[in-house]
Amino acid sequence: MTTMLRSGDPDYDNELAGFQTAVPRRPDVIVPAASAVDVVEAVRHAAEHDLPIAVHSTGHGVGVPFEGGVLVTTHRMTGIRIEDGVARVDAGVRWGAVIEAAAKHGLAPLSGSFPGVGVVGYTLGGGFSLLGRKYGLAADQVTAIEVVTADGELRRATPDTESDLFWALRGGRDNFGIVTALEFRLVPVTRLYGGSLQFGTESLSAVLHAWRDWAADLPREMTSSLGMVPMPDLPMVPEPLRGQHVAQIRIAYLGDAAEGERLVAPLRAAAPLLGDTLAEIPFTESGKIANEPPFPHGYRADNATVSELDDTMLDAILEHAGPGAPVPTVVLLDLLGGALSDLPEHPGVGWDREARFTVRALSVVDDAGMAEIKAAHGKLFDALKPKSTGKLLTFVYGDSGAGDEAAKVYSPADLRRLAEVKAAVDPANRFRLTHNVEPARDAG
Ligand SMILES: Cc1cc2nc3c(=O)[nH]c(=O)nc-3n(C[C@H](O)[C@H](O)[C@H](O)COP(=O)(O)OP(=O)(O)OC[C@H]3O[C@@H](n4cnc5c(N)ncnc54)[C@H](O)[C@@H]3O)c2cc1C
């Protein structure tokens, strides 16, 4: 039998630790899995003892606090193989390792802003990539998923075998089992023109409007987000940014650098610049574009997808999440469209392909209490409601409160189909320590 850690064991707390520190979880048993066989044993143990099961890789996307049950950790499962443009990665692999391995083949994965994020959790949530407007969602490139379901069976889901499970996992995440390995196509990218432009507090409104207008007509080769980031007034923050509510425009452009320069010229001219890191870079340095903090912390985040960003909405974002906001809040606006709106041959579930932008809000729990943050985020998203088209589960972090996230994220038809798949593979709802999809009670 594989190792099992219980509360009080010397390694229990270390094994539980991850990037998110503000969501308490106290499983009865932690199973540090080193292989698919360990995952099978853990799931069979949970079935024999009628216990719920959860999975944890890096801890970036922890959503739901819980006590009891079995937690399987996957960070020891780090195998990567690349063949014929397809990567096969084990459940504990982070994007940074795939980026390095793919570069040796002149290829890149559809990774996101932060290389420390886990490949499986990211991809099962859709996967909004730095190359997303050109190549679509990471989940669209998946060709096979190996998963241990609640009966302790290791299954292989592809468009042709276990096709309902293949659909449900890509968006339904850990409701259906523990993924042990993923296979997905890589794309022919080795470099890009990218980095960020940074502006100070007094330019926030002008930059928000300039980015929104600029984003109206861009080639698919351009993927861009705008961050509004309150920088602490501390010596660790470099001088021009210290104490500023920085507007950070992130750029990842797949055309040549000269054309990139031409495209971003209106942004550079929008307001006085505090920083400008735009340059031609190898894809292996793509983590520098957003330059997100690498250290674990406690945070709460929510989001909405929207059909547009009109002036009233920009005013609401500034009012509820700008410098005068009651709780310091990082806002990220992502431009969608392009290939992110295309329907692939075998789509997953839970990604809003009609939306034009996402609006994400994130606050650090030390800066304010969870309840205070929840109230502040609530006001922001209430104000955006008239133009909201949905929400993405992958950008919900920390206590989301209501417990009905599934109903907010999936359409009624998709939720019904997910519930039917759930009834087929997990009728006892053992995988429920998450944003849960309950099994359909009337399924055949
Ligand atoms: C700093 C930061 C940057 C981010 N940038 C992006 C980005 O650019 N684009 C984007 O799309 N997302 C991004 N995300 C969101 C991220 O993709 C999700 O939080 C994702 O769930 C993280 O997966 P993980 O495995 O790293 O985290 P974990 O917290 O370990 O896992 C999160 C969830 O993933 C699922 N999961 C993980 N492993 C398995 C498994 N083996 N089997 C079944 N389910 C599993 C489960 O639902 C689990 O609760 C970012 C998050 C952070 C904190």
From TrEMBL:
Recite the UniProt keywords alphabetically.
Answer: FAD, Flavoprotein, Oxidoreductase
Q: Which cofactor does it need?
A: FAD
Domain FAD-binding PCMH-type, chain residue ranges per copy: 23-189
Q: Which GO molecular function, any one, fits this protein according to its record?
A: FAD binding
Q: In which domain of life is the source organism classified?
A: Bacteria
Enzyme Commission number(s) = 1.5.3.-
Query: Which top EC class applies here?
Result: oxidoreductase
What PROSITE patterns has UniProt attached to this entry?
FAD_PCMH, OX2_COVAL_FAD
One Pfam family name is FAD_binding_4
Q: Which InterPro entries does the entry link to?
A: BBE, FAD-bd_PCMH, FAD-bd_PCMH-like_sf, FAD-bd_PCMH_sub1, FAD-bd_PCMH_sub2, FAD-linked_Oxidoreductase, Oxid_FAD_bind_N, Oxy_OxRdtase_FAD_BS
| Cleaved signal peptide residues | none
Family under the similarity heading: Belongs to the oxygen-dependent FAD-linked oxidoreductase family.
State what protein this is by name.
Mitomycin radical oxidase
User: Its gene?
Assistant: mcrA
